[in-house]
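quick one, 187 residues, struct below
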Amino acid sequence: MDKVNKAWLKGDINFYFRYKRKILEKMIEGSCLNVGCGDHLINNATNIDENATALPYKDNSYNTIILSDVIEHIEDWEKAVHEAIRVSNKKVILTVPAYKWLWSNYDKELGHYRRYHKKDIVNFLKKYPDLKYKVGYLFGPLLPLVWMRKFSSGKTPNLPKFVDKMFYGLSHIKLPFGSTLMIEIKK
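---
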């Protein structure tokens, strides 16, 4: 994943990860564990790239747990979310690729097992009736481009810096749909 996305800007972190990091850092409450982060580190967090389905921490060890673009890479994604809920004492934040109908060669190239509909997450969270959650979307204005990517070979071309800056600006526009789901789960 990191190799593909870094290639867009010849080694720089692209708009997608810069914008998500900005949002995630604002959402952190207290101590934070960022699980499965690879090179995408969050400031003021413990950043680990360990097995998300068996976290080596006691129950309620961190206030905030982040699984950003992680669970789509895990066969048993529900176990990973359960682990995050177990280790958190305040909130869990997830980001995942949205809409199964957007599945493409690009997802395969990134090592995804799936994309998600909002109902997939909501139905899973019904197993935890004491939790409160909010589900929203990111990158709505870019959804047509993600849809068009379905019809490409899956290879991602390098992204010129001016296009990256334009996409970063468009990312700030909030719409009731998008290419990424963001889920905030509160205990």
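The beta strands are 32-35, 46-48, 62-68, 88-97, 132-138, 180-186.
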